[in-house]
Design goal:
Layout lengths: L1 E6 L2 H11 L6 E6 L2 H4 L1 H6 L1 E3 L5 H10 L4 E4 L2 H5 L2 H7 L4 E2 L7 H4 L1 H10 L7 E4 L2 H11 L3 E5 L8 E4 L2 H13 L10 E5 L4 E10 L3 E3 L4 E2 L2 E3 L3 E4 L4 E4 L6 H21 L5 E10 L5 E7 L7 H7 L4 H9 L14 E8 L27 E5 L2 E4 L2 E4 L3 E9 L2 H12 L15 H4 L1
Parallel strand pairs: 1-2, 1-4, 2-3, 4-5
Antiparallel strand pairs: 6-9, 7-8, 7-9, 10-11, 10-16, 12-15, 13-14, 15-18, 16-17, 18-22, 19-22, 20-21
The structure holds adenosine monophosphate and glycine.
Adenosine monophosphate (AMP) binds next to β7, β8, β9 and β17.
Amino acid sequence: MKILLIGSGGREHALAWKMAQSPSVQKVYVAPGNGGTALAKNKIDGIENIALRDLQDLADFAKREKIHLTVVGPEAPLAQGIVDVFRNQGLRIFGPSQLAAQLESSKDFAKSFMKRHQIPTAEYRTFSNALEAHEYIELKGAPIVIKADGLAAGKGVVVAMNLTEAHAAVEMMLSDNQLGDAGARVVIEEFLEGEEASFIVLVDGKHVLALATSQDHKRLLDGDLGPNTGGMGAYSPAPVVSPEIHAKVLREIIMPTVQGMATDGIPYTGFLYAGLMIHPSGQVKTLEFNCRMGDPETQPIMARLKSDLVFALNQAVDGKLNEVELEWDRRIALGVVIASANYPNTPKLGDIIHGLPSSVVSDDGEQMVFHAGTQLIDGKIVTSGGRVLCVIGLSGTLRGAQQKAYDLIQQIQFNGMQYRNDIGHRALK
Ligand code: AMP
Ligand code: GLY
């Protein structure tokens, strides 16, 4: 069968690589893909890029090529309603409808949904009036968290450690309109303490299949300092998610979410990513929902998945996820993101990357490289985005996995490359 995968990041390279291994798959088309999915040898492995972005063009392609299943990587096409467009034309697609994708595309939707269905999350209120927002901040004090309601490409959340920062965030979003429509409403919520983890599941409207747990490093610099980014590294599994916490998250967050969406008449299908805050007492609260897999969490998760991903995704589209079990590599996978100079602001682009290994997986199976912001130009791999590569080490210990990843990074070179040296530090504690 043929698969169509939408997206161009590291997440999509990892998903395409994994899907192409399925014995039932003849070809994985990636739209638009990146340098990693464009490499000539991938054509032999069954991966090919297609330069389409428009939703109807993609649906036409799926019809013409008799695509059996389309899988959506990023949130933007989901929020634009790609799933509705495909379904209305009788095409099989894995992802949430536009209405269901509001769990990610509107923080206010997600918060009021959680409140209505008693799903644990930080206490909050929503404002579109700046004066009222400022008053609420004075009433609640700092630290406090200000979130733009809409999608803001990672720039919409301000964790204000003092009142000045909190008021400035309200001014930036509500008064100065710096985030446009996305910031025309803000959610102001209680600051939560604890350790974060990413909990990602497949949902078929009714049943849930959990993927391996993971943890991400959102800050740019070592020691979790510097600005927030899309994620500078991730590892799987996340030791903070003990078997007890795992069961609790399914019981208190994931299942009530899937049941609540069904009750509200917006059944949820697709990947569901709950960003968790786990308090030392064992209490777990939902920080956010994403309607997609995480990036870079997907890379270490796919590195560990032993089962056939395409089989699981097809079962999900058919509403039969209860019949699927997934098998995981017992090793720890740790991925370090290499970003370009100036990321996350205006990344420097167009530099040739030297020293890339010739295949995704090393001969001993202990190292992998997934591309993100890269392009194949005249046979050379060139940087084309903020996050460029994700280099993964696999080992029985976290330290071993770290060592493997950083060993491989030493061979890779491009102008202005930057990466964190401490990915995994929380799990080592
Ligand atoms: P979000 O996009 O909602 O996940 O927020 C981005 C990041 O901001 C999260 O990964 C957390 O590190 C932080 N954050 C969000 N909400 C809170 C909260 N209520 N308390 C503390 N930190 C938060
Ligand atoms: N790495 C965080 C995210 O994908 O949202």
